[in-house]
Amino acid sequence: MHPLLREFLEQLALSQDDIDAMGNDLVVEDFPKGTVLLEQGEVSNDCYFVLKGCVRQHAVDFDGKENTVNFFTEMQTAMVYKSYSKRVPSEYSLSCTEDSVLLVGDFFNEAVMFEKYPSLVGITREFMEENLMTEQEDKASFVTASPKERYLNLVKTRPELIERVPQHQLASYLGMTAESLSRIKKRVSQD
Prior knowledge:
Elements: H1 3-11, H2 16-25, E1 27-31, E2 36-38, E3 46-52, E4 55-60, E5 66-72, E6 77-78, H3 81-86, E7 93-96, E8 100-106, H4 110-116, H5 119-144, H6 147-157, H7 160-164, H8 167-173, H9 178-190
Antiparallel strand pairs: 1-8, 2-7, 3-6, 3-8, 4-5, 4-7
């Protein structure tokens, strides 16, 4: 069993027997930086849970501009839920911005795993609910905040992203240009 998977499973309220059994059935893969996990327009067959690394959700708009929508880091689920659950082409791509170790769930094997390990249903639900709450809070604060407030919120809630992802991707995620982000960072550091 991958050591990061064991560490994760041991944090959950599972018996040692369940940990050992799940460790044999759950798939953990290493992905190098730059790996595209899902291309915009493909139907998502996999969902990912980040044990280590960073996955970026992004899309190219009608004008050919790439927009970063989200970053998923340790202990977060990275997936395009609509594509995965509804079996429709994804509006987004997922790619690794760092070397990443991911727990990989397979749409076609999901029901079998849930039947074999009923505790996975509750665990999955908890993580999905947490993701939904975070997404709603992020969207609400993004809509009502100025660019500077968005940056300061990021510094407060996800400071690790500032060092882990390229500035142009971070700027896109914050809804501004890289130049604007640079100016905001400079002003904030002077205050």
